[in-house]
């Protein structure tokens, strides 16, 4: 770990990002480095690592420092790793997190996977040695010794991926430029967010309301139209399912039907929130558990509770699974109905390891 | 003698000054809005150009998607907030994740009778890939995690629990607190856990261990093997590997609960 130097993490001119992977912990030889889990970035010139929580903690090492590297498969309770053997520290190396190490190898531990792709890209970059063609201004090259064996073996891969790689680099560069412009737009939008009445513009940009932290959603024309479409689309399915459907069910149903130009989960929630104000015969309802459903307004609460009580009395007692089978409802929703009836005092529960069973409340 | 500040004239003047100030305020805002519209048009055409060149990249390359998402987060934008957003419409980023959301919901629903609504990210990943077929675009675990984060807003209990270097994906609104999570993590290594193990590793009292295990049983997340050699074993179907389990039908599952 004493080969790393502190870095600001910014790429130099001619240096391109190749791949990055989250959830990487560094090891100094066989010991865990005194750093948290972070993001490992591979560029054409360097291996960079940045702490996820503290972005200022960023270290880098020129790829020319790498002698050879190998994969270490995952084990029970252990993540997959890439072991990287390093050349000697150059005299003019900038200071880093470790002044000295007894090891001349490090490990990258991939706690969120991604090691396969990272290894592949590292192999390519070590083969192509692009840092030699376009030396970035602040990169310190630690001598020109090569690991000859690796170069010979991996040349085939280089040729295959040359074209694809060029496209990807270009895409990343274009993306960076686009984001610079996007950032300007976002800042400007935020500054006038309070003054504009039509929030749909903010929604299109994906900007969140600083107060609610939700993306400006409800109340837009788009969501009003959606609400009406949902009303049309859901009448029949709701009838079939006893008047109630979980929002996730609705999400799947609607998006499967659309095929493309799908709704985001937020679009769906925001549209459903408008049912009442648009006087549509549907309602969005949130149970105590947090489960959200769309229900037909005609299926009143009293009816549902009465039907739950009837069924339970009829059978003596019921679990959510049994009730679900009886009515052809999902287990999730039948449970909510039983809970509701219990809340209103019509049912009481017997909660054991064998399951949750409801009985008519005779108290 | 002139007296300043008082009198109808002064008041009227003040009112006029105030009104002018307000007016200017409005004009400024309008100016800003006009400027914004122009900038917006420019930005949209930049985005269109980017899309025409790199739309394929987003769909094919999971690394690119990660980069894209992280950059959006940095500038404070959620590209997946709405299907009506510029990002989703022009780059097709939305459809990719929303469809993935549908697939995730369906896989979780199909397996719920077996694992109680808890599944490893690995298994979810495998099953989603299988469901997508040979010719579908590749989907990474990062993609799954982002799609799952979006599903949370629909209130059906989607969440991720860190366990053994990866995650368990929860798809039911079962209450799982720190105690439950810690026991799940302990069970990860072998797929089951016993009361003694909990007492030894976590230094808990027997009651606390039993309370947690009972809750997991009730929620259908754990199955009890009371005939195990030394001590009752609490198995977590979510952690069964593909090799050691066979698929169980809902009827069989019902018969298995003690």
UniProtKB/TrEMBL annotation, chain A:
Intracellular or extracellular location(s): Cytoplasm; Endosome
GO CC annotation: ESCRT II complex; late endosome membrane
Gene3D superfamilies: 6.10.140.260, Pleckstrin-homology domain (PH domain)/Phosphotyrosine-binding domain (PTB) (2.30.29.30), Winged helix-like DNA-binding domain superfamily/Winged helix DNA-binding domain (1.10.10.10)
GLUE N-terminal domain: residues covered: 1-138
Main location: cytoplasm
GO biological process, one term: protein transport to vacuole involved in ubiquitin-dependent protein catabolic process via the multivesicular body sorting pathway
Keywords carried by this UniProt record: Coiled coil, Cytoplasm, Endosome, Protein transport, Transport
Single GO MF descriptor: phosphatidylinositol-3-phosphate binding
Domain of life according to the entry: Eukaryota
InterPro entries attached to this UniProt entry: GLUE_dom, PH-like_dom_sf, Snf8/Vps36, Vps36, WH-like_DNA-bd_sf, WH_DNA-bd_sf
Assembly notes: Component of the endosomal sorting complex required for transport II (ESCRT-II).
Role played: Component of the ESCRT-II complex (endosomal sorting complex required for transport II), which is required for multivesicular body (MVB) formation and sorting of endosomal cargo proteins into MVBs.
PANTHER family noted in UniProt: VACUOLAR PROTEIN-SORTING-ASSOCIATED PROTEIN 36 (PTHR13128)
Similarity remark: Belongs to the VPS36 family.
Protein name: Vacuolar protein-sorting-associated protein 36
The species this protein was found in: Cyclopterus lumpus
Automatic annotation (TrEMBL), chain B:
UniProt subcellular location: Cytoplasm
InterPro entries documented for this protein: ESCRT-2_cplx_Snf8, Snf8/Vps36, WH-like_DNA-bd_sf, WH_DNA-bd_sf
Protein name: Vacuolar-sorting protein SNF8
Oligomeric and partner information: Component of the endosomal sorting complex required for transport II (ESCRT-II).
UniProt-listed Gene3D superfamilies: 6.10.140.180, Winged helix-like DNA-binding domain superfamily/Winged helix DNA-binding domain
UniProt KW Protein transport keyword: yes
This protein's encoding gene: snf8
Function (record text): Component of the endosomal sorting complex required for transport II (ESCRT-II), which is required for multivesicular body (MVB) formation and sorting of endosomal cargo proteins into MVBs.
Key words, A-Z: Coiled coil, Cytoplasm, Protein transport, Transport
GO cellular component labels: ESCRT II complex
PANTHER family associated with the record: EAP30 SUBUNIT OF ELL COMPLEX, VACUOLAR-SORTING PROTEIN SNF8
GO biological-process terms attached to the record: forebrain development; optic chiasma development; protein transport to vacuole involved in ubiquitin-dependent protein catabolic process via the multivesicular body sorting pathway
Family to which this protein belongs: Belongs to the SNF8 family.
